[in-house]
Amino acid sequence: MKVLTDIEIAQACQMKPITQIAETAGVPQEYLELYGNYKAKVNYNLLRERKGPDGKLILVTAINPTPAGEGKTTTTVGLADAMRKLGKNALVALREPSLGPVFGVKGGAAGGGYAQVVPMEDINLHFTGDFHAIGAANNLCAAMLDNHIQQGNALGIDVKKITWKRCVDMNDRQLRNIVDGLGGRMQGVPREDGFDITVASEIMAVLCLAADIPDLKARLGRMVVAYTYDGRPVTAHDLKAEGAMAALLKDALKPNLVQTLEGTPALIHGGPFANIAHGCNSVMATKMALRLADYAITEAGFGADLGAEKFLDIKCRLAELKPSAVVVVATVRALKNHGGVAKADLNTENLNALEKGLPNLLQHVENITRVFGLPCVVAINAFPTDTAAELKLVEDKCRELGVNVALSEVWAKGGEGGLALAEEVIRLCGQPNDFRFAYDTEDSIEKKLNDIAVNIYHADGVELTAGARKQMKELEELGFGSLPICMAKTQYSFSDDAAKLGAPRNFTITVRNLKVSAGAGFLVALTGDIMTMPGLPKVPAAEKIDVDETGRITGLF
Length: 557
Description:
Shape: globular
Low-confidence stretches: none
Helix content: 25-40%
């Protein structure tokens, strides 16, 4: 029998009208704005006007990603479907995919197999246009900044100290560093410039952390876009840009409602990367899921050292959220990869390599339980090649830490394959927890950086380059020292070296750049060789994507 691809499974699904999904979710019709038959936006006034107790918040995270794959979104979707099968009122809250990975190497982000959100093609491509609105707002700010300089530069902006970049939602290394404003006096002021990918734009973070339109405008106005000749920060408010940007973003601020293959309501909204941004879906969508359901299941990008740490230390801190349980996703194949096995050899039982790779999983688990004080379950995303001995080894090692393991078969079986995981999550949600943060925001910037490096990465500490140390001093003098930290770091390792797999020791984290995202409300620390504009691989996924004469898309995964 032919094995269907993810997109074939999604296209075979008989979706329910989105009005029916809204009814299931408890969203009254007056708050619903339809985008065709199967997508809708939910008006943010629902949060203000609908009173009542909030549900339990469940975070799904994972080990450091490998080419073998982990299946975090698949597990998130399947867990929500499984909870529905157990009679629980559950909603899923996810990030929107970026076009960069879709056409690059990672592919889409709508789940996989029989645990997907649909319409999969729409979600992975333009969806409801949120990212285009974010890009337009970002580039409007850039245009107003350069126009201000062209028209006389009354604010005294130093063109060598402009921190605001343009953005595009595509992996395009050619745009990382450019020179623009060429062509003569009337064509602008020549200067060095560059592009970030849209998901790294501060406006993406602002949208995801904003509570409402007034908060959105205030955050947009606080964004630092440049510095004057005497070192004073210049904000978007100084350019009088926040009103127009907010006008472009007013519809993008509304969460998007879709469904899983099994008809579970799903809110998909916002999409910052976790390796270069804070990696979580919007506060508004998360709070809406909590208001509508007894269990709100969300995920954070990449491994728990990035997405989960930022979800807990940034999003939960700023939005006053308290998780009830955490799911850490792993695969036997990925753990063997962390243990030194090449991708081509992962289908063969190898207990020695598995034992070498297990410390990666165990360190993430210990961070969740001991650093953040949260109950945790390990979800093993099952593959047919997993052996009983391999699964038992994972289970035994996790139980030594007091954490249970649940085999997840949601890729092959949908919600039915996640019942054991759902039962354990429900059990954990009934327990009290001692949730706490990994650092105190009132500490110095260097102390916070060291706390993350030592407590989460198990590094010896941080080293700041001379430039980063100067930036740190300036940021503290400008009053930004008490903001939380958003680490920009490789997703593949606990360290800032992508080649150091497993759970490395005896290393330091090198911080080469520090900048403020005053609108988002955090400081960004760039480590290693991390970049805010990725590039396409040698063979981009885009080469395999096509559409036929009927409009049916193929090759999307």
